[in-house]
Amino acid sequence: MTAQHVESGELLPATILTGFLGSGKTTLLNRLLSHEGMANTAVIVNEFGEIGLDHLLVETPDESMVLMDSGCLCCTILGDLVQTLQTLLAKRMTGAVPPFERVVIETTGLADPAPILHTLIADPDVTAYYRLDSVVAVVDAVNADSQFDTHFESVKQAAVSDRIVISKTDLATKDAVSGLTARLRGVNPGAAIFQAVMGEIEPDRLFGAGIGSVKGYAGGVSAWLDADAHDGRHTHHRHDGIRTFTVTREVPVEPAGLELWLDLLASYRGPNLLRVKGLLNVAGKPVVVHAVQHLFHPPLALDAWPDGDRRSRIVFITHGIGRTDIDATLDALDFKLEPPAGPAVPDPSNYARFLSLVKRFEEPSP
To answer: Does residue 1 form part of some domain?
Structure first.
């Protein structure tokens, strides 16, 4: 697809809306689309029939897209997500559809949101024009406890989210809602948690997190770090098979060491890393890292520290590995690239240290 380059400040924000079967995700989406604040929004759904749009349709630009009287544009998946996003953008640029300002991608109830996150973070055909804004998960106040116990997908949806909406709170007891809220905070300490009855919630509570922008990217990480510190999760905590913990380092990180650590962590520990966010001191400068499983977003250098704390702090949400496994890899952050003694003559001791570090990633801690 050929198009004029979109500057970073003009990238279109994209939000993932996820939630287990019957959680109320469709109800929430319907209510959101009726808000005036959601005009100029493009929504990607799996089937139009799932969100009951018949009474809202104004015209049909083509068989895969519908325009609603609220100004929102809806479309179904065309082949795959990348193709759909490209088609939407092409129609926007040619004027075939209204100039939408944001995209909401609804997943199926059983879907793992990680592949969509990967697309929005790393696919060059997408990241040139779109940026990840946030992940919103809908959790059923009545059935979530049993779903969490039997369906890991529902736990993972909550674990990777930036915003969580507890639905059906009018049908559950206050104690049940409080217990679920505590369980969700154990799974994901950094997510903002809201309640909504029949999907009624202001859109600005769920959108505009700005995770993919420089300011929002750092703010999202700070929220995780603050929440984890306030809840005392610097020690090891486990919930629903998921572990949440914070790694803190006093000594500044070597730039080459950070690159090595991220590469090895993604290669050897990626499948077990549900989400990782951190603020690191790299040679004295603040750098933000953000990962979803094996995919690490390129580290982002900030212009200034957000506060007086100069320690490196990283929050991990993992499955199947613990703090000791991560601690065993941290020496890689001190790794330095030593210039060769001569043409094509690497330093044997530095190479031996490199191999030793790799081994720590290959072998889980006891």
So the answer is: no
pLDDT at 238: 55
Q: Is 24 left (phi over 0), alpha (psi -120 to 50) or beta?
A: left
Place of tokens 């993919």: 212
pLDDT of residue 82: 92
Q: Are 72 and 53 in contact (CB under 8 A)?
A: no
Low-confidence ranges of the chain (pLDDT < 50): 1-9, 52-61, 212-214, 216, 230-236, 366
Q: Which domain holds residue 200?
A: 8-205
Q: Are residues 219 and 200 part of one domain?
A: no
Dist. CA 276–CA 188, nearest whole Å: 11
Domain C-terminal end among 180, 205, 230? 205
For residue 89, the Cα-to-chain-centroid distance in whole angstroms is 22
CA distances from 338 to 264, 265, 341, 345, 351 (A): 19, 22, 9, 11, 10
How high is the pLDDT of residue 243?
A: 84
One-letter amino acid identity for 114?
Answer: A
Q: By C-alpha distance, which of 192, 190, 247, 194 is closest to 223? A: 190
Q: What is the pLDDT of residue 126?
A: 92
- Give pLDDT tens digits for 240-299: 578 888 899 999 999 999 999 999 998 888 888 888 888 999 999 999 888 888 888 788
Give the pair of three-digit tokens for residue 346.
């690497």
Q: Which of 170, 205, 240 is the last residue of a domain?
A: 205
pTM of the model: 0.76
Q: Are residues 191 and 224 in the same domain?
A: no
Regarding whether 115 and 79 lie in a shared domain, the answer is yes
Tokens at residue 120, please? 């929005």
Residue 6, phi then psi, degrees to nearest 5: -95, 120
Name which of 10, 35, 15 is nearest 196 in CA terms: 35
Return the structure tokens found at 216.
């929002």
Give the Cα separation of 217 and 72 in Å (integer): 26
Regarding whether 137 and 262 lie in a shared domain, the answer is no
C-alpha 7/C-alpha 9 separation (Å) is 5
